[in-house]
Design brief:
This protein is α+β, with helices and mostly antiparallel strands. It is 47% helix and 9% strand. The chain contains 26 helices and 19 strands.
Length: 698
């Protein structure tokens, strides 16, 4: 049989290619699928799935009832609009007709927005997830109709998020594993055992204070020797790990961890702040999502370092982040959770990347002079060969001191007005109060009255979130919303920080009232139940599993320890002394309860370790007198890692009676009155990781 000629084969290939291209073009003309029930939801990630031909359901009794009625497992997708992985799944996988058909026949499909429902962030595999490659913004679990975990997606092997056939195989395998469970073959599969083991560990872990010296050395060893950061755990800025290094005096290690990061494109020089993560050790291949709370924590970590070292570069980046939180993230009087990445298949951002052609065009239209075009390339490393994503970065800290630097950034920002960066829509209480708390803290250690006033004005705008001492989770409020612990803790901290920055006793009293309300809601038999809501079990209503790792921001447990410790220091020596003692004991108990788990948690334990260190080595300063607020700010700027508070109202009534001055407190010992300079000399700026917890009980 004669083989077809090369020209015939070529013609066939060309015809088929043109036919395929025609089909793709025709597909773009077809109307989008009718919206599903997600269209009526308010949460950003739920609405992101509204155009799939998939019967997505919110987490509800109805979804679990349907699973039991039809004997189908539940595909539980936990995600966020700020997750590149979650977006690609929605764009590339859940739009595939074969995937849609298979899921419709074999699963009850449930979506959960992790900003709307943060109690699900670490509900599954709360300890072992550190080793299982589960991301923070995209989590995929398979549950039986009773809500019990039997399998999960953890990037096993090569599973690209753009290949629908690969994920179809994933879903088929998950369905087959359910059949094994249903028939009782082999008993519970490994995922279920892993979940059970994790819950047992949380319940039965021995009570012991964490070894802070061991953790400090582990953190230092985890720093990438060439590119900084903590690449062993994924190259994402880790603010709580950086704060731990600073608090324990590891300045060189902090520099090693931060310097390459701050000179990379992970810092957003266009609008201020930081992008969430980079895919490579050298901080390239950036994902352009930005989280408000993550940026607030980075503002503190970099701002404290800048203050300690009198480093203008660090302070500039931290203050740019402060401004970005109240500019870019603010919408209609609220702060939204995230800026949503807009990278294309080349990895460039429609908003944040500047192509060579674009810069050349600006030079020709008058937006930039030709000299400014060249300057932009030099200042911001906009070279395709060295910076394929063409995102602004500052390699030389001396550049921002150039008088041409800020006017150039202003012009580049002006060029982006026609293509605004996309942000999430729904404001949540834990985000808004958390950002304000961090902003007030940073502004007072910088002794920056203007920024204190700006954060103060924003705090006043958050009144609609509050009803007496209860905190509404979202705006607008939705019927059926349950109390969430992060909302209460962050609101309590925001009012506490407002007191520390301004001396407003009414703010301290309000923060204390909110914290006491949280204790009413989230304590049982005298113990904190650090689940983020109170629903009872791994069922359709939520979970009572405590959050102990930073995922990706400070864990709820860490914040509770830190907040109890701070209020405990303030309320001693007066009418509230019994409550102060109770707060301190609870902070110590929580530190010990999870101390034995720290080695398994790696760098994600930095939140708990930082909070525990503050309780275990609690030396701090109380400032008394007419000018206590101003002197407390001055002292905080000199000792930015230490707790410094003015004394008014219910704060240290015993010390107030001693007269004006600074008092250094260590347990039951009080030294003073001192001048600010004497207090600086008396109070070490760093925490000693070898100190025993006894001094914290005074």
């Amino acid at each position: 049989m004669q083989k077809p000629s090369f020209s015939v084969v070529t013609l066939v290939v060309v015809v088929l290619g043109m036919f395929g291209l025609g089909l793709r073009q025709l597909a773009t003309l077809l109307p989008p699928p009718a919206p599903n029930r997600m269209e009526v939801e308010s949460a950003d990630f739920l609405r992101q799935g509204s155009r799939h031909a998939i019967n997505w359901r919110p987490l509800s009794d109805e979804a679990f009832s349907e699973a039991r009625r039809t004997d189908r497992p539940i595909l539980l997708l936990l995600g966020s609009v700020w997750s590149t992985e979650a977006r690609r799944m929605d764009q590339m996988i859940f739009t595939d007709s074969e995937v849609q058909s298979f899921l419709a026949r074999n699963f009850i499909c449930v979506r959960v927005d992790l900003d709307e429902s943060p109690q699900w962030r670490t509900a599954f595999l709360p300890v072992s997830r550190v080793r299982t490659a589960i991301s923070s913004g995209f989590q995929l679990y398979y549950l039986d109709p009773q809500g019990r975990l039997y399998d999960f997606y953890s990037r096993r092997g090569v599973r690209p998020l753009t290949d629908a056939l690969v994920f179809l195989d994933e879903f088929v395998s998950a369905r087959n594993r359910y059949e094994e469970v249903r028939r009782g073959n082999g008993g519970t599969l490994p995922a279920g055992k892993l979940q059970t083991n994790d819950l047992d560990i949380l319940e039965q872990a021995p009570s012991m204070f964490p070894n802070r010296e061991y953790f400090l050395q582990e953190l230092i060893n985890a720093i990438d020797p060439r590119f900084g950061g903590f690449a062993r755990f994924g190259q994402s800025p880790r603010p709580l790990a950086l704060s731990y290094l600073l608090a324990h005096g590891q300045i060189d290690s902090w520099r090693n961890a931060t310097d390459p990061m701050l000179r990379s494109g992970i810092v957003d020089w266009l609008d201020g702040g930081f992008y969430r993560t980079a895919k490579s050790r050298d901080w390239t291949d950036i994902e352009f999502d930005k989280l408000a709370l993550h940026n607030a924590e980075l503002m503190q970590a970099i701002g404290v370092g800048g203050q300690m070292l009198d480093d203008a570069f660090c302070l500039r980046i931290a203050k740019n982040t402060f401004d970005a939180l109240f500019d870019g993230f603010a919408s209609e009087g609220w702060i939204v959770a995230a800026r949503v990445g807009d990278d294309d298949r080349r990895g460039r951002s429609a908003y944040a990347s500047f192509s060579v052609q674009e810069l050349r065009r600006y030079g020709g239209t008058g937006l930039l002079t030709r000299d400014e075009t060249d300057l932009a390339r030099d200042f911001f490393g906009l070279s395709v060969e060295e910076n394929p994503q063409m995102v602004m970065r500052v390699l030389d800290p001396a550049e921002f001191a150039d008088p041409r630097f800020d006017p150039l950034i202003k012009k580049l920002r002006e060029s982006r007005k026609a293509r605004p960066a996309p942000y999430s829509k729904v404001p949540y209480a834990h985000v808004n109060f958390g950002v304000v708390a961090a902003a007030l803290h940073s502004a007072r250690i910088w002794n920056d009255p203007e920024r204190i006033a700006r954060a103060e004005r924003f705090l006043e705008q958050l009144e609609p979130f509050l009803s007496a001492n209860d905190v509404t989770h979202r705006m607008p409020q939705r019927v059926g919303d349950r109390p969430l612990l992060p909302d209460y803790l962050n609101a309590s901290e925001a009012f506490l920080e407002h007191y520390l920055a301004t001396g407003r006793v009414d703010s301290l009293e309000r923060g204390l009232a909110i914290l006491r309300r949280a204790r009413t809601l989230f304590l049982e038999d005298g113990e904190w139940l650090l689940a983020m809501n109170r629903s009872g079990g791994l069922g359709p209503e939520g979970t009572d599993v405590p959050e102990i790792i930073d995922m990706p921001t400070e864990s709820t447990t860490a914040r509770a320890i830190r907040l109890l410790g701070m209020y405990g220091r303030l309320l001693r020596g007066g009418n509230y002394a019994p409550l102060a003692r109770q707060f301190t004991e609870e902070a110590l108990e929580l530190s010990a309860r999870y101390g034995s788990l720290v080695p398994d948690m790696g760098v994600t334990a930095a939140g708990i370790m930082s909070a525990a260190s503050g309780v275990l080595d609690e030396r701090h300063a109380i400032v008394v007198g007419e000018y206590a607020v101003e002197e407390a700010r001055r002292l905080s700027s000199r000792l930015p890692t230490r707790f410094v508070a003015p004394a008014f109202g219910l704060v240290r009534e015993d010390i107030q009676r001693r007269g004006a001055g600074v008092y250094v407190v260590e347990g039951g010992d009080v030294v003073g009155p001192l001048s600010v300079e004497e207090a600086v000399n008396r109070l070490p700026i760093v925490i000693d990781p070898a100190r025993t917890p006894g001094s914290a009980r005074g």
